[in-house]
Every structure is written in structure tokens, then in C-alpha cells.
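Section 5.1 Outputs to date
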Amino acid sequence: MKAKHGFTLVEILIVVVILGILAAIVIPQFTEASTEAKQSSLQSSLQTIRSQIELYKIQHNDALPTAGGLAFDVAMTGYTVAAGTLAASQTPGQFGVFGPYMQTVPTNPFNNTNVVTEAAADAAGAAGNTTSGWNFNTSTGKFQADDGGTDSANVAHSAY
């Protein structure tokens, strides 16, 4: 008598159902890991920027990066003097010349932009603001992430 080769329809259906259940369990884990990685990157960027703002304030007589009339990104990535204006000479280590504090403003991982919006009030999460990655409060020095109010976790992002 000849032996049967192959699988029955029931056996194949059972395997497909088991694979579907495993996929339903594993796929959400990858989605969560991606969001957690973005949040971790955001927290790291915010810590770095905020510490560099504090260093700027120490070296510029407690003045914020925008107090000298420069844009936030220019003040943080350029050479400045104690008055907060651009230094005439960009010689690193020269007496009275400070910075740069960052090479570039990091990209916000939630909206992939590194544009800093400057305002005298907190503006993070303003609905429809999709061109800004960060918000800098020019009166308090508060630096926040901004996702433009495009998702339900906006409050969590800007609170870091």
C-alpha cells in the first residue's frame, strides 16, 4: 500500500490560525518599541538642549540665547560674546568668545523637523502648527518639543 504524502486541509488551517495569533501578539510590540524609541530620543535631545541653554546663560550673565537679538539656532550654533551678539572673531578658546553650544538643532523625532519657534509664551501643541519641531519661550527660557497638535499624545511630547 502507498503512503500518503502532504498535509490535510485541517492541518494547514490550524497552522495558519496559529501564525495569525502569533502575528497579532508580536506586531503591536514592534509598534510600541518604535514609539518608545522616539520618546527616548526626544527626552535625550531635550536634556542636551536644556543643559546647553543653561551653559549659555552662565556664560552670558544669565541672559537667554535670544536676549542679544539673535535667533535661537544662531545663538546656540555660533560664536557669541557676553552681550549675546555674534563674535567678530570665531577663534575657539579666544577670551570673551563663547560657543558654539550645538552643531545643529536636533530633529524632533515626532515630526522630523528642527525648526525652533520663538515666542514670549508657551506655544507647544498649537493646532495646525506643523512647521515647528521645537518651541522656545523667550521670556522664561522654557524649551519644549512640538508636534503641531497632530496626535493625541501632544501633551506628553511637550511635557518632557
